[in-house]
């Protein structure tokens, strides 16, 4: 199963293959600043599952997380958190209906409590080397 997604101008195309490791919302202060948003919908794949098929994105970094960005339209395509071997794809680029989030993470940085039925991890969940501690909300 593969899905091809692209930046907003179409210069960069990525092919996503196989099942994602996780669909989530990230509240970290890096995602907040880079995207100008309270939190970011993201789909986490192993790096090898995300293949560049057109264009040459710039790998740009605010602090520690490199982000593949289209040099033409500025779309942030995916992020590479250091040391995890994953690519976290911006979920707003997926075809409608594909994003099925199951948790929130890095909620210690949350700008507002989000009250939904999903777990709200303080940092990373266990599957990404964290503790599974959750927020009181
Ligand atoms: Zn573009
Ligand atoms: Zn983040």
Task: Give an overview in words.
With 137 residues, the chain is mainly beta. The protein has one domain (2-128): glutathione-dependent formaldehyde- activating enzyme (gfa) (Alpha-Beta Complex), CATH 3.90.1590.10. Helices cover 5% and strands 35% of the residues. The protein is built from one helix and ten strands; from the N terminus they run E-E-E-H-E-E-E-E-E-E-E. The chain has one helix at residues 29-35, and strands at residues 2-6, 13-17, 22-26, 40-46, 50-54, 58-61, 66-69, 76-80, 86-90, 103-105. The protein has a seven-stranded mixed sheet with strand order 6-7-8-9-4-3-10. Strands 1-2-5 form a three-stranded antiparallel sheet, with no helix packed on it. A hairpin with a 6-residue loop joins strand 1 and strand 2 (13-17). The radius of gyration is 14 Å and the shape is globular.
How large is the radius of gyration? 14 Å
Structural class comes to mainly beta
The CATH superfamily is known as: glutathione-dependent formaldehyde- activating enzyme (gfa)
Q: What is the CATH fold-level name?
A: glutathione-dependent formaldehyde- activating enzyme (gfa)
Number of strands: 10
Overall body shape: globular
Record the strand order, biggest sheet: 6-7-8-9-4-3-10
CATH class annotation: Alpha Beta
Strand residues, percent: 35-45%
CATH architecture assignment name: Alpha-Beta Complex
End-to-end Cα distance, whole Å, is 36 Å
